[in-house]
Amino acid sequence: xxxxxxxxREILVDVDKCTGCRACEMACSAFHSxxxxxxxxxxxxxxxxxxxxxxxxxxxxxxxxxxxxxxxGRHVYxxxxxxxxxxxxxxxxxxxxxxxxxxxxxxPLKCDMCESTPALKQPWCVEVCGEHALVYSEREVPxxxxxxxxxxxxxxxxxxxxxxHGMEAVIARLKQIVKEK
Length: 181
Fold this sequence. Notes:
Helix content is 23%, strand content 24%. By secondary structure, it is of the alpha+beta class. The chain has one domain: Alpha-Beta Plaits, CATH 3.30.70. The strands form 3 sheets. A two-stranded antiparallel ribbon has the order 1-6. The chain has a two-stranded antiparallel ribbon with strand order 2-3. A hairpin with a 4-residue loop joins strand 2 and strand 3. Helix 3 crosses helix 4 (167-180). The longest helix is centred in the C-terminal third of the chain and has 14 residues, at 167-180. It holds the Pfam family Fer4_2.
């Protein structure tokens, strides 16, 4: 059942355009410093540019959800002739690496699209990306009704009784049982 539309906000990454300048990391850490723009510490950024300077490969990755355990996935992928480890594309903050863990508090970090009041036109990392490797996008998608939990035995039994005897008869009998107790 469609409950209207919702807006999906996302940052699209073109790895072929990224030069590894890390301006996105600096802008993100400055925006999230307290007070805003008071310091730059890329270790506090919600974006990391995973790089291999020897092969000229740079992959901007945004902080996603936190996971309490590291994964076993250590596969290697080749995309357009470039080789990447599976960990390079992972957005999770996890115990197997320090990405997306706040260095002072050790709390996990997650990209919030630079939410602020008033709202920004686009996140700061996109704003400062001179190579346009990061592109902000908004799109509308149908909002779906939340999945209903499966019925328990009591609900199934009541539905069966109502189908067989009608709601009024079931309610009348329940009232009678309550009075008898």
